[in-house]
Amino acid sequence: MQTSVLPNNPQQQRTETVSKRLLSLDFFRGLTVAAMVLVNNPGDWGHIYAPLEHAPWHGWTPTDLIFPFFLFIVGVSITFALGAKGRGHGVVGKIVRRSATLFLLGLFLNFFPKFDITTVRIPGVLQRISLVYLVCSLIFLKTTSRQQLYILCGLLVGYWMLMTIVPVPGVGFANLEPTTNLAAWIDRTVITPAHVYKVAKVWDPEGLLSTLPAIGTGLIGMLTGTWLRSTRPAAEKIAWLFAAGCLTTLGGLIWDGFFPINKALWTSSYVLLAGGLAMLGLALCYWLIDVNNYRRGVTLFVVFGVNPITVFFLSGLIPRIMNLIHIAQPDGSEIGSKEYLYRTFIAPPFADPKNASLAGALTFVLIWFVILWWMYRKNVIIKV
């Protein structure tokens, strides 16, 4: 992990730094990261508005779009980072090192605070990001856009066939049920139940087999990024992105009829739905921000977008540290300091517990905004 502080005139340096990036991409990334912080940190996990929760199994909510949007953005970013650097000596080594760093950061989050190697969860969000980044980066270096499209189609169709045709050992038939599908069987066989997501117990939402279609999400982002980096007129780029986004989304909705949209399984229909909506979202941001030079309020989310991994890692770590600090209650019980602050300062003004929980999440986002705004003003960018 590397911290970069730009010297000299802060305003000038900030402008130069952002100008080398696609501002709409930073905004879209920041919006996604802010949403991720919001849904991951409610004031009360027992009282959450439905759109801020994941779908129980088949189906989707707005929350289910956040992670694939981020992987889509990873794919777009690869084309700008590696496309600008070319395929020179040492690039593969840097890709592998960055991927390993992301994986280890995710593993550290799973270890903390117990550091029990016998029960630690091995998969996770950062681990999946690291694998998608690694595979997509190598594909980008070694293939053409046409070949990337073929790989994408192969992954989605191949995954669909594996999940709906291959009999599950011990079950005898292919199925998409939570604990008896092929992906779940592979997770508990290879990773073992001791090292998967504790809520699911015998399978993991970021498991092995479902990482294949997740790579497909990154490939959709790569193809989008390649298109945005082309020398075609901006109007043509936007028109085709909107068209491709609509068709991809429609494809996901049609595929949902026989391979249901499901985030936990990362089904092929889910890849198309989320990828299509991400294309539409980025196209809209690109049209407003980079083409029409709309800037009002953009910085509010750009500050999240320039330090995304920092936000995700620390927003997961700090609440765990706070919960290690126990505060005694009048009845003799103890609660973590995070819960104490929520009960004492945030929840009391609200009659509806869902509103209080949402206020707690928004407060956490606001605190992070203040921190990131300061980092942005000081031009502090932590690179992983």
Automatic annotation (TrEMBL):
Residues 21-231 form the Heparan-alpha-glucosaminide N-acetyltransferase catalytic domain. The chain crosses the membrane at residues 65-83, 95-113, 125-142, 149-168, 207-228, 240-258, 270-289, 298-318, 358-376. Keywords: Membrane, Transmembrane, Transmembrane helix. InterPro entries: HGSNAT_cat (IPR012429). This is DUF1624 domain-containing protein.
